[in-house]
């Protein structure tokens, strides 16, 4: 029987940007999504026999994270918002999944949206993109 992982334990942690680096969970978080893409280099030509050909070990690897949550008085969420007000300001962060898989590195805020509906709690939605090498540590 397979063992399923809990989505609610996925976390986004914001770095203190000081030495030694410490990480605090972004408050009010509801959803975290990580996507990894590798921009392949197409070298298809007339000698490819009509088939697409990719150049191995070339291109750019990119990590993107989207997160949604409810606003609370979390200091680290406010720090993240302040970082978003400085164009292309980079910060350290970790994404941690239920089995302990961790992605750590430098990120830049791409978008930040705050929503205040008349009949609900204020919410946020943001996306960040990797800036440099992201270190992956496999969990248990």
What is this entry, summarized?
By secondary structure, the chain is mostly beta strands.
Give the topology.
Blueprint: E1 11-15, E2 23-25, E3 29-42, E4 54-70, H1 75-84, E5 90-96, E6 102-115, E7 123-137
Antiparallel strand pairs: 1-2, 1-5, 3-4, 4-7, 5-6, 6-7
Written overview of the protein:
A seven-stranded antiparallel sheet has the order 2-1-5-6-7-4-3, with helices on one face. The mean pLDDT is 86. The chain has one helix and seven strands; from the N terminus they run ββββαβββ. The protein is mostly beta strands and 140 residues long. The chain has one domain (8-39, 60-137): Hcp1-like (Pnp Oxidase, Chain A).
Q: Measured on Cα atoms, how large is the radius of gyration?
A: 18 Å
Tell me what the CATH architecture is. Answer: Roll
- The overall average pLDDT, rounded, is 86
| SSE class | mainly beta
CATH superfamily annotation: Hcp1-like
């Amino acid at each position: 029987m397979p063992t399923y992982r809990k989505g609610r334990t996925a976390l986004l942690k914001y770095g203190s940007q000081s030495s030694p680096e410490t990480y605090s969970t972004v408050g009010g978080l509801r959803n975290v999504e990580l996507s990894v893409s590798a921009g392949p280099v197409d070298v298809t030509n007339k000698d490819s026999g009509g088939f697409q050909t990719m150049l191995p070990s070339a291109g750019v690897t990119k990590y993107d994270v989207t997160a949604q949550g409810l606003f609370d008085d979390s200091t680290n969420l406010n720090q993240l918002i302040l970082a978003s007000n400085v164009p292309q300001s980079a910060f350290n962060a970790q994404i941690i999944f239920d089995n302990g898989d961790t992605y750590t590195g430098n990120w830049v805020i791409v978008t930040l949206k705050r929503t205040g509906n008349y009949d609900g709690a204020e919410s946020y939605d943001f996306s960040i993109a990797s800036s440099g090498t992201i270190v992956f540590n496999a969990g248990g």
